[in-house]
Amino acid sequence: MQHKIIDAKDVVIRFAGDSGDGMQLTGSLFADMSAVSGNELSTFPDYPAEIRAPHGTVSGVSGFQVHIGSEEVSTPGDYCDLLVAMNPAALKANAKWCKRHAMVLCDIDAFDETGLAKAGFETDNPFVELGVDDRIIIPAPITTLTIESLKNSGLDHKSVLKCKNMFTLGMACFIYNRHLDYVYGYIEKRFSKKHPEFIEPNKKVVRDGYNYAANMQLIPNTYVVEPAKNLKKGTYRNINGNQAIAWGLLAAAEKSGLQLFCGSYPITPASGILEELAIHKSLGAKTLQAEDEIAGICTAIGAAFAGSLAVTSTSGPGLSLKTEAMGLAVMAELPLVIIDVQRGGPSTGLPTKTEQSDLNQALYGRNGECPMPVIAAHSPANCFDAAFTAAKIALEHMTPVILLSEGFLGNGSEPWCIPAMKDYPEIKPPFVQGILKPGQKFYPFQRDPETLVRRWALPGQKGFEHRVGGLEKTHEGVLSNDPVNHETMVRERAEKVARVARDLPDLQVSGPQSGKLLVVGWGGTYGHLHAAVHELGDNVSYAHFDFINPLPPNTGKVLESFEKILVCELNSGQFADWLKARFPHCEILKYNKIQGQPFLVGELVEAIRKEM
Predict the structure, then answer these.
(1) Residue 178 near residue 33 (C-beta atoms within 8 A)
(2) Engineering a disulfide at 555: which of 137, 211, 344, 551 sits with its beta carbon 3.0 to 4.6 angstroms away?
């Protein structure tokens, strides 16, 4: 049958089902084919905390939201145009995210008495019960049709049922006029080596899903989202934040001439960094999956002492365990990049949900006077630059650096223009051989008078023998308990970190440069705040912080140019408190959310309007 084709500026699709229904793969494939089609996009994978929660329950629902557009897309979207619900629990968990005229595509085979009861429905009409019966409901017997499609495939029943997501993907591809070539290519690449018998069945079922949708009268329209016209020229790929961090570190290793070493312990949602680096041994990356968090960072400290670009990755609980070793790295003044992909806390907390609540831990979470630079990535693609910058600061200033990411960034993805390495600066570690003059004696903690950075002497080199460790030392590297020496060294280490600000760019303000209100964000809130400010118009001022400690050099001047500063963050106000402590004369307000979910653009717009 003929369907009306509508040009859409942007659309939001949310795939939801049990954690075994393949919704993450379905959403990822749809996002990847949209990136190949030239769309702007942003994704939001939303996992349950359990590896395999009870089947058919609301707590076990896994979701993947993708927002594609022909113009700038900076968030995964607040509400969806199409909800794919593979069972009643997925409908119940996600119906509230449907737009007023959204389509709801359901596997009606799962909406039996047992499925409805598991999801907690009290009637046999979940759409009326949830108040979404006025949406465009598309009941499709996806399970039955998948079984029928593959009845002659030779696959066993369990394998056939695993193909339901591909049938669903085919239907979504028809609704949004996506060609199936990309999906076919993915299927061939995934199964060609180990399971070639799966190639043709998967191709068939996705094609049958497409054709079934093409003949459904319940689908009123199909949609076309044209390629984005505002993208700068270049080669693009879809990338998530964890991949981007790994690649940024590889780029930093190349620019510094050092080998990259990553010692880490797997932890959600940071494991992808270690996994990505592990597959790039051909680029010189060395990885160690340690037995625990402490071993991970200690191996990295050893690698730094030996002359590597040393990295360890973790999330909040792991950062707590690494605390003592972080102090050792500060005392030894060794370059180290510590990546924290934040999740809901405290303790085990919300392992698969996003939050910005580790900021205080990053700033203060060590014994003694123990400052270190802290920077924050603001988007999945920006994770590349943030990782490169963190490595550059660590290597050139001989200090551990904390790079804060978030679950939303680490798992989320967006198009990334692959950069040219010539556009990135060289990284120049302060190796002692290139600095000491002939005949000049080496002192391990003698400092550059401008930067206060000590020289980096690698072990095994004659004339540069020295000790490192957690005990206080003099400039000559001698153990010392002298009170005055201790204060001198404490102040020098702190001042060394403070002088990193000299290398930082100024804080940029979009909109008026002075006035009544400045909206402030940091880290992964960038896209949502950017969209909210854009919706409110050009008269709203907005500044986003990538550098937390030290702050950009013009921070005071910027804040003092406004009557009020509204800091929006996914915690109880930790960055607002950090700013208040440094600029107590400024009126700093808080807008906070601690729900394990990103901001909605709509709620930010409302909060900003109240202060305008």
Answers:
(1) yes
(2) 551
Write down the H helix ranges in 215-280: 241-256, 271-278
| Burial degree of 253 (CB within 10 A; 0-12, 13-18, 19+) | buried
What is the b/e burial string over 305-316, where b = at least 16 CB atoms within 10 angstroms of the residue's CB? bebbbbbbbbbb
**CATH number among 3.40.50.1820, 3.10.50.30, 3.40.50.970, 3.30.710.10, domain 237-423:** 3.40.50.970
Give ∠ CA 56-59-63 in degrees, rounded to 5. 85
- The CATH code for residues 4-224 is 3.40.920.10
What one-letter code names the amino acid at 223?
A: Y
CATH number for the domain formed by residue range(s) 509-611:
3.40.50.920
Name the residue among 231, 391, 222 with its Cα closest to residue 312. 391
Give just the sign of the alpha carbon dihedral 35, 38, 39, 40: positive
Q: pLDDT tens-digit profile of 265-305?
A: 999 999 999 999 999 999 999 999 999 999 999 999 999 99
Tell me what percent of the chain is helix, strand and coil, each rounded to the nearest 5.
40, 20, 40
Phi-psi region of 2 (alpha: psi -120 to 50; beta: other; left: phi over 0): beta
Exposure string over 356-393, b if 16+ CB within 10 A, otherwise e: bbbbebbbebbeeebbbbbbbbbbbbbbbbbbbbbbbb
Domain ranges of the chain: 4-224, 237-423, 509-611
Count CA atoms closer than 13 A to 366's CA, side-chain side. Answer: 20
Q: Tell me the per-residue pLDDT of 532-577, one tens digit each, with 9 for 90 and over.
A: 999 998 899 999 999 999 999 999 999 999 999 999 999 999 999 9
CB neighbour burial string for 572-597, b if at least 16 within 10 angstroms, e if fewer:
ebbbbbbbbeebeebebbbbbbeebb
Tell me whether the CATH fold assigned to 4-224 matches the one assigned to 237-423: no
Indicate the pTM of the whole model.
Answer: 0.95
Whether cis (ω within 30° of 0) applies to the bond prior to 550 is yes
Beta-bridged to residue 14, according to DSSP, are 65, 83
Beta-bridge mates of residue 105: 84, 138
